[in-house]
Amino acid sequence: MASPGDMGDGPAPAPQPTGRRNAHLRKTVGDMVRSMAVVLGLVFVIVLLAWRPLPEEVKVVDTAPAIGLAVAQSQVPVVAPANLPEEWRPTSARWQATERSGDVPVLHIGYVTPTDEYAQVSTGAVASPRYLDEQTAQGAPTATREIAGEVWQEWESDGRRSLVLTDGEASVVVSGTGEWDEVAALASSLQPAS
Questions:
Q1: pLDDT, tens digit, for every residue of 100-132?
Q2: Radius of gyration of the chain from its Cα atoms, rounded to whole angstroms
Q3: Which residues contact 165 (CB under 8 A, 6 or more apart)?
Q4: Which CATH number describes the domain made up of 64-192?
Q5: C-alpha count within 13 angstroms, C-beta hemisphere, residue 118
Q6: How does 178-189 read in b/e, with b if 16+ C-beta sit within 10 Å?
Q7: pLDDT digits over 127-181, tens only?
Q8: CA end-to-end distance (rounded Å), the chain
Q9: Contacts of 110 (CB under 8 A, 6+ apart)
Q10: Any idea where the domains of the chain sit in the sequence?
Q11: Backbone angles phi, psi at 4, to 5 degrees
């Protein structure tokens, strides 16, 4: 067996550089930060392209309190929608004066329709031209339509269809952004409220 002194004529030679630098030794914290920024930027772009906002859930309200208040306080008979399918979602119900009804309170019930349009019923002891202009979104009468034995006036404005029934000083206005069939379906659901 050879001893360390038998391996050659002198001390072992010193290691010699290969001429290549170790790339890992030259990396800095700045390089790491730049790499992370690129990766995070790519993740952000992917999330942005894939993100789809969820539609807001419709907040359904109870219409009974407003209808009950209208029945107790109204000077004219009150009508309200009844037996609508559950696809008609009530989103607002109030018994109060509007900007153009003066001091006269009006029963207003708003819905999201089965086709995700908006529809409303407004009824009260007011039938002034200013009030009808407000409730029909500045609409104008265009035709008539018979619903449940009553002759309603069809009013149209930009993006809104309304059915108007007046009786002296009282009126019922059913209007919406959907098609005529939807507006008529809401009008045909009206029954005397108790």
A1: 999 999 999 999 999 999 999 999 999 999 999
A2: 38
A3: 150, 152, 153, 171, 172, 173, 187
A4: 3.30.200.100
A5: 7
A6: beeebbbbbbeb
A7: 999 999 999 999 999 999 999 899 999 999 999 999 999 998 899 999 999 999 9
A8: 116
A9: 90, 91, 92, 93, 118, 119, 120
A10: 64-192
A11: -60, -30
